[in-house]
Amino acid sequence: METVHAALVVEDQPLIAVELEQLLRDAGLDDIRTFTSCADAEEWLDHHTPRIAVIETRLHDGGCEAIAKALLDRNVPFIVHTVESSPARHVSALRDCTKWIEKPCKPELFLATLEDCLSEPMVAR
């Protein structure tokens, strides 16, 4: 499995995905892999480990629990970026995200959260 310095974005809303990609570039990350389906993201994760990830809780082809589990298993920090107001209702790996941000959020909040995630070492699980 290849560890890459890529940022993984899992989002099926095109405008939101473009905004996230730009915010990640603004933070200095230039290798960004964006997937609009769980299946495609999971396939990529079969062979790669990103530096950081931003994921939605659910895409058009299902929930993102398996993606969150793969990220947790590899100690990859990840932000859940969603319209849902709280991780408390999730019993899956999504609940154990590094940070939870509600949509819409101000770019400054996203960038500060991203910086926190990149600077904090993940604890082995």
Provide an overview of this structure.
With 125 residues, the chain is an alpha/beta fold. It has a single domain (2-119), classed as Response regulator (Rossmann fold, 3-Layer(aba) Sandwich). It has helices at residues 14-26, 38-45, 65-73, 107-119, and strands at residues 2-3, 7-10, 32-35, 48-49, 52-55, 58-59, 62-63, 78-82, 99-102. The chain starts with a strand and ends in a 6-residue tail after the last helix.
What CATH architecture label applies?
3-Layer(aba) Sandwich
**Fold-level CATH name:** Rossmann fold
CATH H-tier superfamily: Response regulator
H/E order of the elements?
Answer: EEHEHEEEEHEEH
Key descriptive features of the protein:
125 residues, alpha/beta, Rossmann fold, five-stranded parallel sheet, 4 helices
